[in-house]
Write a structure and sequence with these properties.
The complex is a heterodimer of chains A (about 290) and B (about 270).
Chain A: H1 2-40, H2 44-61, H3 80-83, H4 87-119, H5 127-142, H6 145-156, H7 160-184, H8 189-196, H9 201-234, H10 243-252, H11 256-289
Helix pairs in contact in A: 4-7, 4-9, 5-7, 6-7, 7-9, 8-9, 9-11, 10-11
Chain B: H1 3-9, H2 17-20, H3 22-41, H4 46-64, H5 74-105, H6 114-129, H7 132-143, H8 147-171, H9 175-183, H10 188-222, H11 230-239, H12 243-273
The chains are: A mainly alpha (about 290), B mainly alpha (about 270).
Chain lengths: ~290, ~270
């Protein structure tokens, strides 16, 4: 009898708590929506007027393909070749985009690796260095790369170098942090064994730490490469090289069909690199687990 | 262990590196030659970089010398921050709402027809393949400059990602409760409502909170293409070379993002722990 009463009251208090939380969250959500709509000044007419314009725009950028002329040359309207008449240029730009991302990932992950030793609690030489490096890395990854890109376009001029440096900085910031967390989760025993048998700091890191962490580091670097591929397609919007520059141009000059051609190419590139890198990541981690 | 024993244990141990593992050397050579190729390809020269550094010095200096601090237009900065947050919030809420049906339909727990699911999944892949900034450019074309284009860009880009995460959460849900409901004769809809939703709802909410967090970062850059928010203020000041004000805005953005992180972590823990 007693137990039942306590059980009931406990149950009731749980239900009350849950209802309270649900109401609290719903109210929070509603207040947020109302406030945000006020701030942004959404009026429905504006939104409704935009939708047909969006439809127009999409139908304009889609290519007019005619089934009969699909495989004719680039001079005939309605063929794929006509749609992609600028393909050699796109390929060149995509190659540049790809190289920007790869190069920035390589340099950034090397720098990140260097900083990660100083930013890992268990191996950092002293707490002051640890603290400063962590804050620097936070700044590096906190500022969006396109902001860095604007800065470096101003300093170095229009071109892929500005984009590479922007991506390198961002990559250093995020990989430095991720790598240092991997180091912190590593097993301390091999390092201690090396220390006990008289190894110096470099050999402790090289033979005690790196063999444990390297598959994870490579996997993170590959993930970062995927992110950088996406980033490098848009850095061109501010003049930092790659295919984004061309996309910005064709959108602003209303070369309608070229817009869809470039966007489709970007999607294909991004998806195929994601697939490839995902496969590679599984392979690298799988090899280590065997 | 003596050296002989070591050799017996691993016959290649005292070989030079190129004999012990030639593959490492090959990989190293490939990477090295790629780096040299890239330096050539991008025309990276030391003198350019040094010139750049020299140019950077006055910019960095002017970033930290705030002479006319009191005369800055704080109002526009404040409005920009509020707009950015509002864009991120509305975009995330709208994307989350539409992602519930889309995500459930993309999950094999709900939709048993493989072909339809395949189409929905590829559609989501397609949306995710286009970067948020490209969406913003397209929406600016249709809806004009302003935060509405930003909200829509966040909405579309996030629908692709959030739906995918939702569908994965539904895929990983426990089958027993669903089977229990089916065996007691419930309809398809009530199976989803009482068997699946209670399991996945906390995950959905915490994913959405996580996306609000990440959107408050990405909403910052949408202003660069004219889609409203603090990014507009920032890029205008950078173009006009008000580096001191730009740096101030960057600091404000970093503080904002850190605060949002805190808030969302707090809420997520509350929701997951009940």
């Amino acid at each position: 009898m007693m137990n039942e009463i306590t059980l009931n009251s406990h149950n009731k208090s749980l239900i009350r708590k849950k209802i309270f939380w649900n109401i609290f969250l719903i109210v929070l959500l509603l207040v947020g929506i109302i406030l945000s709509s006020k701030i942004i000044d959404i009026n429905s007419s504006n939104l409704l007027n935009g939708i047909p314009r969006l439809g127009d725009y999409v139908s304009q950028i889609l290519p007019t393909l005619e089934p009969n002329n699909l495989f004719l040359g680039s001079k005939d309207q309605g063929s794929i070749a006509y749609w992609y008449f600028n393909l050699p240029k796109y390929i060149k730009l995509l190659f540049e985009t790809f190289n920007m991302a790869l190069f920035a990932t390589m340099v950034g992950s090397t720098l990140g690796l260097f900083f990660s030793f100083l930013a890992a609690k268990n191996i950092s030489p002293n707490s002051l260095i640890f603290f400063t490096i962590r804050r620097i890395l936070e700044f590096f990854r906190g500022v969006p790369e396109i902001i860095f890109a604007i800065l470096f376009v101003w300093i170095l001029g229009i071109g892929p170098l500005a984009g590479i440096i922007a991506m390198t900085i961002h990559t250093t910031g995020s990989l430095g942090k991720l790598f240092s967390e991997v180091h912190e989760n590593s097993d301390n025993k091999p390092i201690e064994a090396l220390k006990a048998s008289g190894g110096n700091w470099i050999s402790e890191m090289r033979f005690g730490l790196l063999p444990q962490v390297i598959p994870n580091l490579i996997s993170y670097a590959l993930l970062r490469f995927e992110i950088n591929i996406r980033a490098s397609t848009i850095l061109g919007f501010v003049g930092a090289g790659g295919i984004g520059q061309e996309l910005y141009l064709v959108i602003n000059f209303n070369y309608y069909e070229e817009v869809s051609a470039i966007i489709l190419l970007i999607i294909l590139t991004v998806i195929s690199i994601d697939l490839f890198s995902g496969y590679l990541r599984k392979y690298i981690i799988g090899v280590e687990n065997d | 262990m003596t050296n002989q024993e070591l050799v017996k244990f691993n016959p290649k141990i005292f070989y030079p590196l190129w004999k012990r593992s030639p593959i490492k050397i090959i990989i190293f050579l490939i990477i090295f030659s790629y780096l040299i190729f890239s330096v050539k390809y991008f025309n990276i020269s030391i003198t350019d970089l040094i010139n750049g550094l020299n140019k950077m010095k006055p910019i960095l200096l002017s970033m930290i010398t705030w002479n006319d601090f009191l005369s800055w237009n704080f109002n526009s900065i404040f409005v920009g921050i509020l707009q950015t947050l509002a864009m991120a919030f509305l975009g995330t809420v709208a994307a989350s709402v539409i992602s519930i049906p889309l995500g459930l339909l993309a999950s094999r727990q709900v939709l048993k027809i493989n072909f339809l699911r395949f189409i929905i999944r590829r559609f989501l892949d397609f949306i995710r393949g286009i970067d948020i900034l490209i969406w913003a450019l397209i929406f600016v074309r249709a809806f004009g400059l302003g935060p509405i284009s930003g909200v829509l860009a966040i909405f579309i880009a996030d629908t692709g990602t959030i739906s995918k995460l939702y569908s994965e959460a539904a895929d990983n849900s426990d089958n027993k409760q669903i089977e229990g409901l089916i065996s007691s004769g419930s309809t398809k809809l009530s199976t989803i409502r009482y068997g699946l939703m209670p399991q996945v709802m906390p995950i959905f909410i915490s994913q959405s909170l996580y996306f609000f967090e990440s959107n408050s970062r990405s909403a910052v850059i949408l202003g660069i293409v004219g889609a409203g928010g603090i990014g507009l203020q920032l890029s205008e000041r950078m173009k006009a070379q008000y580096w001191d004000q730009a740096f101030f805005i960057i600091i404000i953005i970093l503080i904002m993002v850190a605060l949002i992180d805190r808030l969302s972590r707090f809420l997520r823990e509350k929701i997951i722990n009940g």
